[in-house]
Here is the input.
Amino acid sequence: MADDPNKNWGDGFENVWDSQRHDKDKLGGGFGYVDATDAYANKEQMIISFLHVPSNTVVSFKAFLTAFNDTFNSEWAPETVYGRADPIYMFKNTTRNISLAFKIPASSEGDAFENLGRVQKLTQFLYPNYTTLANPSTGVPDIFAQTISQSPLVRLKMFNLVNQHGPGGMKGIDAIQMLGLAPGSKRSFSGAQMSAGGGLLGVIANLTVNHNLETEGAFNEGMGQILPKLLDVNLSFSPIHEHPLGWSEENTFSQAAFPYSVDVEGSLPKPEWSEGDLSDMTPGDAAANSDQRMNDQLDPTAAATTTDGGPGSQAAQDEKDAAQAALLNTP
Here is the structure.
Protein backbone atom coordinates (compact mmCIF):
# COMPACT_ATOMS: atom_id res chain seq x y z
CA MET A 1 0.00 0.00 0.00
CA ALA A 2 1.33 3.42 -0.89
CA ASP A 3 2.21 6.01 1.73
CA ASP A 4 -0.29 8.49 0.32
CA PRO A 5 -1.46 10.43 3.40
CA ASN A 6 -4.83 11.06 1.76
CA LYS A 7 -5.78 7.43 1.22
CA ASN A 8 -5.84 4.27 3.33
CA TRP A 9 -3.32 4.66 6.10
CA GLY A 10 -3.11 1.29 7.78
CA ASP A 11 -5.77 -0.97 6.29
CA GLY A 12 -4.66 -4.38 7.61
CA PHE A 13 -1.94 -6.80 6.48
CA GLU A 14 0.31 -4.03 5.08
CA ASN A 15 3.52 -2.93 6.81
CA VAL A 16 2.56 0.73 6.77
CA TRP A 17 3.89 1.64 10.20
CA ASP A 18 7.29 3.33 10.19
CA SER A 19 7.98 5.94 12.86
CA GLN A 20 10.99 7.22 10.90
CA ARG A 21 9.31 7.56 7.52
CA HIS A 22 9.11 11.34 7.59
CA ASP A 23 12.33 11.69 9.57
CA LYS A 24 14.21 9.93 6.77
CA ASP A 25 12.75 12.29 4.22
CA LYS A 26 13.79 15.28 6.31
CA LEU A 27 17.15 14.17 7.69
CA GLY A 28 18.35 11.81 4.98
CA GLY A 29 18.89 8.65 6.98
CA GLY A 30 16.77 8.91 10.07
CA PHE A 31 17.85 8.63 13.67
CA GLY A 32 18.97 5.01 13.53
CA TYR A 33 16.61 3.81 16.29
CA VAL A 34 13.97 1.10 16.28
CA ASP A 35 10.45 1.82 17.51
CA ALA A 36 9.04 -1.43 18.89
CA THR A 37 5.50 -0.16 18.44
CA ASP A 38 5.94 -0.33 14.66
CA ALA A 39 6.43 -4.10 14.75
CA TYR A 40 3.60 -4.51 17.23
CA ALA A 41 1.25 -2.68 14.88
CA ASN A 42 2.51 -4.27 11.65
CA LYS A 43 2.75 -7.89 12.77
CA GLU A 44 0.17 -8.18 15.53
CA GLN A 45 -2.32 -5.71 14.03
CA MET A 46 -2.87 -4.12 17.45
CA ILE A 47 -4.36 -1.01 15.91
CA ILE A 48 -7.59 0.99 15.95
CA SER A 49 -8.97 1.46 12.44
CA PHE A 50 -11.67 3.67 10.95
CA LEU A 51 -13.09 3.27 7.45
CA HIS A 52 -15.06 6.14 5.91
CA VAL A 53 -17.73 4.22 3.99
CA PRO A 54 -18.62 6.81 1.29
CA SER A 55 -15.01 7.31 0.17
CA ASN A 56 -13.63 3.87 1.21
CA THR A 57 -10.78 5.70 2.96
CA VAL A 58 -9.08 4.14 5.96
CA VAL A 59 -7.07 5.65 8.78
CA SER A 60 -5.56 3.64 11.63
CA PHE A 61 -3.82 4.40 14.90
CA LYS A 62 -1.23 2.57 16.98
CA ALA A 63 -2.18 4.14 20.27
CA PHE A 64 -2.47 3.59 23.99
CA LEU A 65 -6.06 2.72 24.78
CA THR A 66 -7.19 4.66 27.86
CA ALA A 67 -10.94 3.98 27.88
CA PHE A 68 -13.34 1.56 26.22
CA ASN A 69 -16.92 1.49 27.46
CA ASP A 70 -19.52 -0.65 25.71
CA THR A 71 -23.02 0.34 26.86
CA PHE A 72 -26.21 -1.59 26.05
CA ASN A 73 -29.52 0.13 26.79
CA SER A 74 -32.82 -1.74 26.72
CA GLU A 75 -35.93 0.40 26.28
CA TRP A 76 -39.23 -0.75 27.76
CA ALA A 77 -42.68 0.85 27.56
CA PRO A 78 -44.52 0.55 30.90
CA GLU A 79 -48.29 0.15 30.75
CA THR A 80 -50.17 0.84 33.99
CA VAL A 81 -53.08 -1.56 34.55
CA TYR A 82 -55.88 -0.97 37.04
CA GLY A 83 -55.52 -3.17 40.09
CA ARG A 84 -51.84 -3.97 39.61
CA ALA A 85 -49.12 -2.46 41.76
CA ASP A 86 -46.53 -2.86 39.02
CA PRO A 87 -46.92 -1.86 35.37
CA ILE A 88 -46.73 -4.32 32.51
CA TYR A 89 -43.58 -3.77 30.52
CA MET A 90 -43.50 -4.07 26.73
CA PHE A 91 -40.06 -4.44 25.21
CA LYS A 92 -39.14 -1.97 22.45
CA ASN A 93 -35.44 -2.31 21.55
CA THR A 94 -31.85 -2.60 22.77
CA THR A 95 -29.35 0.01 21.61
CA ARG A 96 -25.58 0.08 21.92
CA ASN A 97 -23.11 2.90 22.40
CA ILE A 98 -19.32 2.74 22.48
CA SER A 99 -17.14 5.31 24.23
CA LEU A 100 -13.53 5.16 23.13
CA ALA A 101 -10.46 7.12 24.22
CA PHE A 102 -6.83 6.67 23.25
CA LYS A 103 -3.51 8.52 23.42
CA ILE A 104 -1.18 8.96 20.44
CA PRO A 105 2.39 9.80 21.51
CA ALA A 106 5.13 10.82 19.09
CA SER A 107 8.59 9.26 19.24
CA SER A 108 10.07 11.90 16.91
CA GLU A 109 9.14 14.98 14.90
CA GLY A 110 8.33 12.83 11.91
CA ASP A 111 6.11 10.62 14.03
CA ALA A 112 4.31 13.71 15.38
CA PHE A 113 3.77 14.91 11.81
CA GLU A 114 2.16 11.62 10.80
CA ASN A 115 0.07 11.40 13.97
CA LEU A 116 -1.40 14.84 13.38
CA GLY A 117 -2.14 13.88 9.78
CA ARG A 118 -3.98 10.75 10.86
CA VAL A 119 -6.10 12.65 13.39
CA GLN A 120 -6.79 15.27 10.73
CA LYS A 121 -8.05 12.55 8.40
CA LEU A 122 -10.29 11.12 11.14
CA THR A 123 -11.95 14.50 11.71
CA GLN A 124 -12.73 14.65 7.99
CA PHE A 125 -14.68 11.39 8.34
CA LEU A 126 -17.39 13.30 10.22
CA TYR A 127 -18.47 15.19 7.10
CA PRO A 128 -20.75 13.90 4.32
CA ASN A 129 -20.27 13.51 0.59
CA TYR A 130 -21.72 16.24 -1.61
CA THR A 131 -22.88 16.24 -5.21
CA THR A 132 -22.50 19.46 -7.19
CA LEU A 133 -25.63 20.41 -9.12
CA ALA A 134 -25.60 21.97 -12.56
CA ASN A 135 -27.04 25.39 -13.28
CA PRO A 136 -30.38 24.61 -15.02
CA SER A 137 -29.98 27.50 -17.44
CA THR A 138 -26.36 26.95 -18.50
CA GLY A 139 -25.76 23.31 -17.60
CA VAL A 140 -22.48 24.31 -15.92
CA PRO A 141 -21.82 22.80 -12.43
CA ASP A 142 -22.43 25.38 -9.73
CA ILE A 143 -20.17 24.98 -6.67
CA PHE A 144 -22.71 26.90 -4.60
CA ALA A 145 -25.48 24.43 -5.46
CA GLN A 146 -24.67 21.21 -3.64
CA THR A 147 -26.72 18.45 -2.05
CA ILE A 148 -25.71 15.68 0.35
CA SER A 149 -25.29 12.43 -1.55
CA GLN A 150 -24.03 10.15 1.25
CA SER A 151 -24.03 10.34 5.03
CA PRO A 152 -20.66 9.95 6.81
CA LEU A 153 -21.05 6.37 7.98
CA VAL A 154 -17.91 4.84 9.49
CA ARG A 155 -16.66 1.34 10.24
CA LEU A 156 -14.78 0.95 13.52
CA LYS A 157 -12.40 -1.98 13.97
CA MET A 158 -10.56 -2.58 17.24
CA PHE A 159 -9.03 -6.01 17.93
CA ASN A 160 -11.72 -8.63 18.60
CA LEU A 161 -13.68 -6.20 20.80
CA VAL A 162 -15.27 -4.18 17.99
CA ASN A 163 -16.10 -6.19 14.88
CA GLN A 164 -18.79 -6.72 12.33
CA HIS A 165 -20.63 -10.02 12.79
CA GLY A 166 -23.01 -11.94 10.59
CA PRO A 167 -22.43 -13.07 6.98
CA GLY A 168 -20.68 -9.82 6.01
CA GLY A 169 -18.35 -9.99 8.98
CA MET A 170 -16.97 -13.47 8.48
CA LYS A 171 -14.36 -12.40 5.98
CA GLY A 172 -10.70 -12.79 6.84
CA ILE A 173 -9.97 -15.22 9.67
CA ASP A 174 -13.09 -17.08 10.73
CA ALA A 175 -11.54 -18.71 13.78
CA ILE A 176 -8.25 -18.24 15.60
CA GLN A 177 -7.34 -20.99 18.03
CA MET A 178 -4.83 -20.29 20.79
CA LEU A 179 -2.88 -23.51 21.30
CA GLY A 180 -0.54 -24.65 24.05
CA LEU A 181 -3.26 -24.97 26.69
CA ALA A 182 -4.34 -27.90 28.80
CA PRO A 183 -5.27 -31.09 26.89
CA GLY A 184 -8.78 -30.96 25.54
CA SER A 185 -9.09 -27.19 25.84
CA LYS A 186 -8.64 -24.29 23.47
CA ARG A 187 -9.55 -20.66 23.02
CA SER A 188 -11.16 -19.70 19.75
CA PHE A 189 -12.45 -16.45 18.30
CA SER A 190 -15.15 -16.55 15.64
CA GLY A 191 -15.19 -13.88 12.98
CA ALA A 192 -11.98 -12.19 14.15
CA GLN A 193 -11.26 -9.49 11.58
CA MET A 194 -7.93 -8.11 10.39
CA SER A 195 -9.06 -5.51 7.85
CA ALA A 196 -10.92 -2.28 8.60
CA GLY A 197 -13.51 -3.42 6.04
CA GLY A 198 -14.69 -5.96 8.63
CA GLY A 199 -15.30 -3.25 11.20
CA LEU A 200 -18.55 -2.43 12.94
CA LEU A 201 -20.75 -0.04 10.97
CA GLY A 202 -22.02 3.04 12.77
CA VAL A 203 -21.83 6.79 13.28
CA ILE A 204 -19.39 8.93 15.25
CA ALA A 205 -21.69 11.07 17.39
CA ASN A 206 -18.91 13.26 18.77
CA LEU A 207 -15.14 13.53 18.55
CA THR A 208 -12.81 15.45 20.86
CA VAL A 209 -9.10 15.99 20.19
CA ASN A 210 -6.88 17.24 23.03
CA HIS A 211 -3.51 18.46 21.77
CA ASN A 212 -1.94 18.67 25.27
CA LEU A 213 0.08 21.75 24.35
CA GLU A 214 -0.02 23.08 27.90
CA THR A 215 1.45 19.91 29.44
CA GLU A 216 3.43 17.94 26.84
CA GLY A 217 4.38 20.77 24.49
CA ALA A 218 5.08 20.49 20.77
CA PHE A 219 7.87 20.32 18.21
CA ASN A 220 8.65 23.66 16.54
CA GLU A 221 8.61 23.09 12.80
CA GLY A 222 9.42 26.65 11.78
CA MET A 223 7.61 29.91 11.32
CA GLY A 224 4.14 29.46 12.87
CA GLN A 225 4.22 25.65 12.62
CA ILE A 226 4.10 23.20 15.53
CA LEU A 227 3.48 19.48 15.96
CA PRO A 228 1.92 18.26 19.24
CA LYS A 229 3.94 15.60 21.03
CA LEU A 230 0.88 13.86 22.48
CA LEU A 231 -2.66 13.71 21.11
CA ASP A 232 -5.71 12.54 23.06
CA VAL A 233 -8.72 11.33 21.07
CA ASN A 234 -12.14 10.77 22.68
CA LEU A 235 -15.18 9.72 20.69
CA SER A 236 -18.67 8.29 21.01
CA PHE A 237 -19.67 5.65 18.47
CA SER A 238 -23.23 4.41 17.87
CA PRO A 239 -23.25 1.05 16.02
CA ILE A 240 -25.65 0.12 13.23
CA HIS A 241 -25.78 -3.68 13.29
CA GLU A 242 -26.17 -5.26 9.88
CA HIS A 243 -27.57 -8.55 11.12
CA PRO A 244 -30.47 -9.65 13.32
CA LEU A 245 -29.80 -9.87 17.04
CA GLY A 246 -31.95 -12.09 19.21
CA TRP A 247 -32.86 -15.60 20.23
CA SER A 248 -34.48 -18.16 17.95
CA GLU A 249 -37.18 -20.72 18.71
CA GLU A 250 -34.37 -23.26 19.20
CA ASN A 251 -32.98 -21.10 22.05
CA THR A 252 -29.84 -20.20 20.14
CA PHE A 253 -28.58 -16.66 19.69
CA SER A 254 -28.50 -15.36 16.12
CA GLN A 255 -24.81 -14.43 16.30
CA ALA A 256 -23.09 -16.79 18.73
CA ALA A 257 -19.86 -14.72 18.85
CA PHE A 258 -21.56 -11.32 19.29
CA PRO A 259 -20.24 -8.88 20.38
CA TYR A 260 -16.62 -9.78 21.24
CA SER A 261 -15.93 -12.68 18.82
CA VAL A 262 -15.31 -15.12 21.68
CA ASP A 263 -16.43 -18.62 20.65
CA VAL A 264 -17.15 -20.01 24.12
CA GLU A 265 -19.27 -22.93 22.88
CA GLY A 266 -16.57 -24.06 20.48
CA SER A 267 -13.87 -23.76 23.13
CA LEU A 268 -15.46 -25.74 25.96
CA PRO A 269 -15.01 -29.53 26.17
CA LYS A 270 -18.13 -31.69 26.12
CA PRO A 271 -19.46 -32.18 29.70
CA GLU A 272 -18.91 -35.61 31.21
CA TRP A 273 -22.02 -36.60 33.23
CA SER A 274 -21.79 -39.26 35.91
CA GLU A 275 -25.31 -40.46 35.02
CA GLY A 276 -24.38 -40.96 31.38
CA ASP A 277 -24.67 -38.85 28.25
CA LEU A 278 -27.37 -36.19 28.80
CA SER A 279 -26.65 -34.25 25.60
CA ASP A 280 -30.10 -35.11 24.22
CA MET A 281 -31.91 -33.75 27.26
CA THR A 282 -34.66 -31.21 26.75
CA PRO A 283 -34.52 -28.00 28.84
CA GLY A 284 -37.32 -29.41 31.03
CA ASP A 285 -35.44 -32.68 31.60
CA ALA A 286 -32.28 -30.77 32.46
CA ALA A 287 -34.14 -28.62 34.98
CA ALA A 288 -35.71 -31.70 36.57
CA ASN A 289 -32.33 -33.39 36.77
CA SER A 290 -30.86 -30.33 38.43
CA ASP A 291 -33.72 -30.23 40.98
CA GLN A 292 -33.18 -33.92 41.75
CA ARG A 293 -29.45 -33.33 42.32
CA MET A 294 -30.23 -30.52 44.76
CA ASN A 295 -32.81 -32.61 46.64
CA ASP A 296 -30.35 -35.48 46.94
CA GLN A 297 -27.78 -33.14 48.45
CA LEU A 298 -30.28 -31.68 50.94
CA ASP A 299 -31.78 -35.06 51.90
CA PRO A 300 -29.50 -38.00 51.10
CA THR A 301 -32.15 -40.48 52.23
CA ALA A 302 -34.42 -39.30 49.42
CA ALA A 303 -31.98 -40.34 46.70
CA ALA A 304 -33.10 -42.57 43.87
CA THR A 305 -33.69 -46.10 45.13
CA THR A 306 -31.59 -49.05 44.00
CA THR A 307 -31.84 -52.77 44.66
CA ASP A 308 -28.20 -53.42 45.57
CA GLY A 309 -28.52 -52.47 49.22
CA GLY A 310 -25.85 -49.78 48.89
CA PRO A 311 -25.90 -46.45 50.73
CA GLY A 312 -28.97 -44.46 49.86
CA SER A 313 -30.90 -47.49 48.58
CA GLN A 314 -34.35 -48.47 49.81
CA ALA A 315 -32.98 -51.72 51.26
CA ALA A 316 -30.41 -49.80 53.30
CA GLN A 317 -33.12 -47.43 54.55
CA ASP A 318 -35.36 -50.36 55.55
CA GLU A 319 -32.50 -51.94 57.47
CA LYS A 320 -31.83 -48.64 59.26
CA ASP A 321 -35.52 -48.25 60.19
CA ALA A 322 -35.67 -51.85 61.51
CA ALA A 323 -32.59 -51.27 63.66
CA GLN A 324 -34.08 -48.12 65.16
CA ALA A 325 -37.42 -49.89 65.85
CA ALA A 326 -35.64 -52.77 67.59
CA LEU A 327 -33.69 -50.31 69.72
CA LEU A 328 -36.87 -48.53 70.80
CA ASN A 329 -38.63 -51.81 71.68
CA THR A 330 -35.74 -53.12 73.79
CA PRO A 331 -36.77 -53.35 77.48
In short: Confidence is low (pLDDT under 50) at residues 1-7, 168-185.
